Protein: Iron complex transport system ATP-binding protein
Organism: Edaphobacter aggregans
Amino acid sequence: MTPFLHLAHVNVARGENIVLHDINLSVNAGEHIAILGPNGCGKSTLIKTITCECYPIAQPDTTVSIFGRERWDLTELKKRLGVVSAELPGRQTLTTTGRDAVLTGFFSSSTLWPNLTVTEAMRTRADEVLEQIGAVPLANKPVGEMSAGQQRRIMIGRALVGSSSTGSDRQMLLLDEPSNALDIAAQQDLRDLLRRLAQQGTGILLITHHVSDIIPEIDRILMMKDGRIVADGPKSELLTAPHLSALFRTEVHLTQKDGFHHAW
Ligand SMILES: Nc1ncnc2c1ncn2[C@@H]1O[C@H](COP(=O)(O)OP(=O)(O)OP(=O)(O)O)[C@@H](O)[C@H]1O
């Protein structure tokens, strides 16, 4: 199995406070994982640690290894690791077309600035990705004229463009509450797209507050509380009403239908 991530004894501070405590986590490429936990427990900081936007406190036993390497050129890493959240990369993205917004994934930029060199190979790869995510009709449409669901689809393309769909350069998609601000139909579209990508071998690391976002292909759950991973195991064991009730310190009810869970 190809390793995607290995974190050992990782502590991370933000401002004056330590917000991640002794994180130990290994993920293989192509795994499908959901991270659950109350507001402020450190989920986004964990993703930012993986993308090197937050750094661990240097200690002798601390390890952060991504795709089997501990040292990265940040530009190269960002190409391999796209994060999709409910926000666009910048306001300039609004005037960028769908195809160009996908191409910005090669540069981690908000738009295709004139000084960026786009090669033919990049264009071919962007067209491949537009096809893969079912967004060919959005190629020439400005992002600002798209619905929130269409924008999210393009941002998934932007996150995927820098890596290939197979082999050691396999796609790994990090999603931080991607269904926020989407209506019911757009949430459904997003789940269908994530299911298709997961079935094609794209790895998924999904942060969500919505249990119904946990597509059937996700089979591993991480539970975080107060900056610590408090549970890490199969969905069948952890995605239960008692575990969720303990995690969120409130009574949670759970139902299951067609591989999806619904909590209230
Ligand atoms: N830029 C920042 N500066 C200082 N502290 C921060 C910053 N961003 C987050 N924090 C703090 O770090 C802790 C973890 O925040 P983080 O955003 O990782 O949690 P989260 O689980 O993703 O929360 P949510 O579910 O609300 O998005 C919180 O206590 C938060 O207040």
Q: What stands out?
A: The chain has a mean pLDDT of 92. The first strand starts at residue 3 and ends at 14. Residues 27 and 144 are 35 Å apart (CA to CA).
